[in-house]
Amino acid sequence: EVQLVESGGGLVQAGESLRLSCAASGFVFSDYALGWFRQAPGKEREGIGCISPSDDKTYYADSVKGRFTISSDTAKKTLYLHISSLKPEDTGVYYCAADRSLAHTILVVKTTPKSVGMDYWGKGTLVTVSS
Predict the structure, then answer these.
(1) Which residue in 129, 37, 39 sits closest to 87, CA to CA?
(2) CB 3.0 to 4.6 Å from 102: which of 20, 33, 51, 110, for a disulfide?
(3) 5-49 per-position pLDDT tens digit
């Protein structure tokens, strides 16, 4: 059974940093591209970025460049999202997703919410940033 399980969310103060994790199981981690997405309260889901664990190539949406860093650990089959200098507008549910195609994953990151067709999705972890 394929599973993507996000963790690391919670209540944080503005200005702090946070690392989210996404533990993967049930598929060959290095064969997939993995992406992070988020959905703020009352807003549509947006793409953050993605990584190809086989070669560590990363792509970030223009709206988040600078404060978000995506990494992965193939041995642990875990995807990470580090967010620095958190802002109240970073509040939302953060999701990880996997797809066999890096090109498709980049497209989904760019075009979300118009395109959300990834192979697998996690259930999300809530991040709340207080001012």
Answers:
(1) 129
(2) 33
(3) 999 999 999 999 999 999 999 999 999 999 999 999 999 999 999
